[in-house]
Specification:
Layout lengths: L1 H6 L4 H4 L2 H15 L5 E7 L4 H5 L4 H11 L10 E7 L4 E6 L9 H16 L3 H19 L17 E2 L2
Parallel strand pairs: 1-2, 1-4
Antiparallel strand pairs: 2-3
Helix pairs in contact: 3-7, 6-7
């Protein structure tokens, strides 16, 4: 069944057309004005049949994307990847080591649940924007802006479609 979901998955571009990607990028930029963290959003429609047959899971793909996209390569080690694997209906959040011990697994899971609620309601853009806002709130708590001066933007704000 999982293999079929991946083989016949709809493109992420269907759920996130260009204007939606722009609004998500704007939400990331607005959120990053509140904190010194870095947020990256990536979505993947499906995995290859070989990956599905090898049992590759969404978490492993998210961690691989985190490394490949160099989300770990921020000055304060405070990059956060919000990753969606559409065929598996999975949302994963991977946070850099600078957030270890500051944000609990339950807090990250709460962000995922918030996003899942909107995805199930058929509102993918709103799901991502609300997730970005929730991550921004967590980052602002632990990495607030200093003197109101925005820091250097180290990761792209533009969402990445990994298809």
């Amino acid at each position: 069944m999982r293999l079929l979901r991946h083989v016949f998955a709809r493109s992420a571009r269907h759920l996130f057309p260009e204007d939606s990607l722009h609004r998500i990028a704007d939400a990331i930029a607005a959120g990053e004005l509140q904190h010194r963290g870095e947020i990256l959003f990536a979505v993947e429609s499906e995995l290859s049949p070989g990956m599905v047959l090898r049992g590759v899971q969404a978490r492993a793909r998210a961690e691989a994307a985190f490394a490949r996209l160099r989300a770990w390569d921020t000055e304060a080690n405070n990059g956060v990847l919000i990753y969606l694997l559409l065929a598996d209906h999975r949302i994963e959040i991977v946070a850099d080591r600078g957030l270890n011990g500051l944000v609990s697994a339950e807090q990250w899971r709460g962000v995922c649940l918030l996003m899942e609620e909107r995805m199930q309601a058929g509102e993918p853009e709103q799901a991502v924007v609300r997730g970005i806002e929730a991550v921004s709130d967590l980052l602002a708590e632990h990495f607030p802006q200093i003197d109101g001066t925005p820091d250097r933007d180290e990761l792209p704000n533009r969402p990445l479609i990994l298809d």
